[in-house]
Amino acid sequence: MAERKKADYVVVGSGAGGGTITHELTKRGRKVLVLERGPDIRWVGNHAFAIAVLDKHGFLTSKEGMGVARALCTGGSSVVTCGTSSRPPKGVFEKHGIDLTPYLEEGEKQLGVTTLPDDVIGEGVLALLEAGNRLGMNWVKLQKFIDPAKCEPRFCNCMLGCAKGAKWTSRVLLDEAASMGAEVLPNVKVEEVIVQQGEATGVRAWRKGRGELVVEADRVILAAGGMGTPVILQKSGLYEAGTGFFCDPLAFTIGYHPRLKAGFAPPMTVGTFDFWDSDGFLLSPVVDPWISLALEALKAKPSRILYWPQYPRTMGIMTKAKDELAGRISIDETFSKQLTHRDQSVLDKGGSIARKVLIEAGCDPTTIWTTKARGAHPGGTVRIGEMLDTDLQTEIKGLYVCDASVIPDSLAAPVVLTLVALAKRLADHLEPTGASAGNQGHKEKTLR
Asked: For domain 117-159+249-325+335-375, which architecture applies?
């Protein structure tokens, strides 16, 4: 017999969107149940953690062979981000009549967004910033949700989880929500939304080691990520979900410096958006964690592994590109995605510019190479204005989406702050308080 639970809201997924909406609804007095597909593993900051929580242990690939990163654990991919805060480009949401400005501001305060001091950024990365500016670009310090007082700058493992607790993750909000009465269940895979007479009334799931779980709820909020949410929607009868998506493809251009160290520096602390409007990419210093870099070197050219012992003096510049909405996520969780000719040309241009910056900073030109392209934070699979109205509701009443799926266009930039803002806005729609209650009379654009 199935285990049964009841809640005002059931939230599927616990990343930046799921964690934020859970926290907001719980503090407004609602009974919230969170279902997270992955485990609740707290020993972060090492490769064993990454292998344990990354889908397919970090080897998730499309049918065409393109790798895409996806974390399955409490906190979702917020646990393995670079901790960089970026507002969405102008027009992405405004063209749908959505103003996220007050929610972005609120999110920045909650996450403690700031730039990091020079001693945390490190001399190697600062040399890249100075080199970029000497070449006529506008390289600046980037906004981070990292507490510099807690950061261990010369042995940073942001992308493996922050063992020092310096980087904000949605686990902060999940833990606070749990202390206020929310229930968070890890190791639960949601199969479908229960729909009765066109209205969502709960979800049907499988709980690891315990069998079937049925949750009855007044409203269902899917926050299972750009790859998880469309599969659930397809199984619930919304078959267009997952058609066309972005994954902000990226590649790292790597070089080795004779003296300066940057291998263990915090990633994405500086960078340039000079090429975003014209070409659709950003540049920022990032180096893969040391074991991961060895694997990337072997994939690119086996002889590159000879430089691996020089990891502390590794310098890397990431090109993160705005890709076209293409591919398909299928109901069996397989997916099709490959770079278009335009996507690859954008990455190639970014890599060429990155190479010039590395050489200007003092790297040996003969040591410079570029990793194979991979995808990060897939999204756009259940887009606002197509499958969702501007309140993030699907055509099924009471069924909402609050993750990267909803973003209508590729950002080529970090998504965490955007998801936090969207979740706060959704909370105001669902449970208006104070000034937000007075805004409910304004009817925004609905599903086209």
From this structure: 2-Layer Sandwich (3.30)
- Residue ranges covered by each domain of the chain: 1-38+74-112+168-245+378-448, 117-159+249-325+335-375
Pairing mode of beta strands 243-245, 199-207 = unpaired
CATH fold of 1-38+74-112+168-245+378-448: FAD/NAD(P)-binding domain (3.50.50)
Q: 72, 195, 196, 213: which is closest to 204 by C-alpha?
A: 213
Tens-place pLDDT, residues 238-286: 999 999 999 999 999 999 999 999 999 999 999 999 999 999 999 999 9
Q: Yes or no: say if 411 and 210 are a contact pair by the CB < 8 Å rule.
A: no
Amino acid at 131: A
Q: What ranges in 54-158 are assigned the alpha helix state H?
A: 101-111, 118-121, 123-134
Low-confidence residues of the chain: pLDDT under 50 = 435, 437-448
Chain mean pLDDT for the chain: 93
Q: Name the strand (E) or helix (H) holding 141.
A: strand 140-141
* Length of the chain (residues): 448
pLDDT of residue 377: 85
